[in-house]
Amino acid sequence: MSTELMTELLEAGVHFGHQTKRWNPKMKPFIFEKRNAIYIINLGKTVEQLQDATEFLSGVAARNGKVLFVGCKKQAQEAIKEAAQACGQYYVNQRWLGGTLTNLTTIRKSIGRLKYIEQLEHQPEYSKMGKQEIAAIRREGEKLKRNLEGIRDMEKHPDAIIVIDTQREAIAVAEAQRLNIPTVAIVDTNADPELINYPIAGNDDAIRAIRIVLQKLVDAIVSTRTGRSRKDQEALAAVGE
């Protein structure tokens, strides 16, 4: 399994780190060698870390926990949204609003505002509004939707968060740490792996690399959930007999 996985990771370019001048010394244990002023990541370590991360996420899924996927850089946006939707989880892929975790009450108010705007035509005050006012409110609604669509049903803190680019999403990582929410993340050679509970050493810039890692994490969540629902159905069938 691990040789097959290593080949997949290699083909997706997961082993390409950053330039050697941009590195975090704490990543040294996960670096295989220097090549053309670029660090090459040790995929043997990546495979081990990926297995730890998938086991952890299987455990979260087994107890019906919720996961928040976070990645707002251009290369990650679409992959983050697709990954979260594929396993019925939450996502933030446009902009991390400070306080998304630490000030969830305020975020929930903004989601309430978004829902109000979406139902604007059915609101009693709609008939008294002018065209310009309606247009301004609709623009506000579009902006709220862009930032909040992936977490509109998130009424309490998630049980884990998955992050692409821990440097860029440093605020999300810090909020999760403050609330003791376990983190899973692709950690490139310029990042600090000690900030993450389940770091996965790898390239966090290439779309293919991001997608392959997300795919493995999603598979762990989905297979646990479908496995559990199958067991539930079997148990119900046994009771029926």
Furnish the topology, listing elements before pairings:
Layout: H1 2-11, E1 16-19, E2 31-35, E3 38-41, H2 43-62, E4 67-70, H3 74-86, E5 90-92, H4 104-118, H5 131-148, E6 160-164, H6 170-178, E7 183-187, E8 198-201, H7 207-240
Parallel strand pairs: 4-5, 4-6, 6-7, 7-8
Antiparallel strand pairs: 1-3, 2-3
Would you kindly provide a written description of the structure presented here, covering whatever features stand out?
With about 240 residues, this protein is of the alpha/beta class. It has seven helices and eight strands. A five-stranded parallel beta sheet has the order 5-4-6-7-8, sandwiched between helices. Strands 1-3-2 form a three-stranded antiparallel beta sheet. The protein is elongated. The model has no long low-confidence stretch (mean pLDDT about 90).
Feature tags:
241 residues, five-stranded parallel sheet, three-stranded antiparallel sheet, alpha/beta
Let me know the number of strands.
8
The shape is elongated
Q: How much helix, percentage-wise, in residues?
A: 40-55%
- The order of strands across the largest sheet is 5-4-6-7-8
**Head-to-tail CA distance between termini:** 39 Å
List low-pLDDT spans: none
Mean pLDDT across residues: 90
Total of DSSP H or I helical runs spanning 4+ residues: 7
Percentage beta strand:
5-15%
Radius of gyration: 21 Å
Structural category: alpha/beta
How many strands, what sense, and barrel or not for the largest sheet? 5 strands, parallel
Which H/E pattern describes the elements?
HEEEHEHEHHEHEEH
